[in-house]
Amino acid sequence: MTETAIDVTRLDHFFGEGEARKQALFDVSISIARGSLTVLMGPSGSGKTTLLTLMGCLREVHAGSVRLLDQELFASDEAARVDMRRRLGFIFQAHNLHDSLTARQNVMMGLQVHGRGDRDRQAAAADHALRLVGLGHRLDYRPGNLSGGQKQRVAIARALVSNPEIIFADEPTAALDKVSGLAAVQLFRDLGRARGTTTVMVTHDPRILDLADRVVTLEDGRLVRDQTRGASASDQPSAQS
C-alpha cells in the first residue's frame, strides 16, 4: 500500500459525440496523499465536478490514467468500479434522502448496501455517525421535519458510517451555516488525522480553505494552481499553467 490515495496522470475528458463533442478536462495530473483534505476550486464549468466524478468511479476514464487506492481505473469494467465504490463515501449538494425513512434509517442504508453487520449494529453505527454531525437529538426524525442544513448533515453521516477510505464531496457545506459547515469540514480533517481517511471536496466556500491541506484550482478544464496550506504554505503554479 502506497502513501498516495489518488494518482491522476495526463487525464483528458470529453462530452458528446461528433461536432457536439466538447473537451472538459485537458491534461490534468495530480497526486493526492492518503489522509489529506484537498479542496477543488474554480468557476462554474471549470471541470471540478467532472474531475471529482472521474476520480470517484462515477464516470468511465477514457483518456489518461487514474489510479485509486493502487488500482487503475482506465479501461476498468463496471464490476470493478462498483467494487471500488464500496470503499468510498459520497456527499453531494442534493442530499438524496428517502422521505419515508428516519434519519437513522437513511444513514443505515450506507451500511445495508454493503451488507455490513446485523440490524442492531447498523443502527448503533448510524446513531454514532449522526451524533458526530450533531444530530443525536434527531435520530427518529424524517426529512420532512428537518431543516435543509440538517438534511445535509444526515447525508454526511450516511457517507461516513461505513468508514470509507476516501470521501468525495461536491459542495457539502452549501446548505450549512458557518458553524455547521466548519464543523463538518473539521470532522473530515480529524478523520484524516485519526484514520487516514482521504477527503476530496469541491467547494466555492472560502470559509473552509484554512482547514484544507491543499487547494487545487481549475479553470477551463485545466489545473492552474496547486496551493499547500498551513504554516509552511507555498503557492506553486502548476506546470500545466
Q: Can you walk through the features of this model?
A:
By secondary structure, the protein is an alpha/beta fold. It has a domain at 97-163. The chain contains six helices and eleven strands. The strands form two sheets. The protein has a seven-stranded mixed β-sheet, with helices on both faces. The protein has a four-stranded antiparallel β-sheet with strand order 2-1-4-5, with helices on one face. The protein is globular, with a radius of gyration of 18 Å. Residues 231-241 have low confidence and may be disordered.
> What is the structural class?
alpha/beta
Secondary structure: number of strands: 11
Seen as an oligomer or otherwise, the chain set is single chain
SS field, number of helical segments: 6
Main sheet? Answer: 7 strands, mixed
What is the CA–CA distance across the termini? 31 Å
Shape: globular
Radius of gyration: 18 Å
What is the percent of helical residues? Answer: 25-40%
Kindly report the average pLDDT value.
90
How much of the sequence lies in strands comes to: 25-35%
What are the SSEs and their pairings?
Blueprint: E1 4-15, E2 22-33, E3 37-41, H1 48-55, E4 63-68, E5 71-72, H2 78-85, E6 88-91, H3 103-112, H4 119-132, H5 148-160, E7 166-170, H6 178-195, E8 198-202, E9 214-219, E10 222-228, E11 234-237
Parallel strand pairs: 3-8, 3-9, 6-7, 7-8
Antiparallel strand pairs: 1-2, 1-4, 4-5, 9-10, 10-11
Helix pairs in contact: 3-4, 3-5, 4-5
Compact description:
By secondary structure, the chain is an alpha/beta fold. It has 6 helices and 11 strands. It has helices spanning 48-55, 78-85, 103-112, 119-132, 148-160, 178-195, and strands spanning 4-15, 22-33, 37-41, 63-68, 71-72, 88-91, 166-170, 198-202, 214-219, 222-228, 234-237.
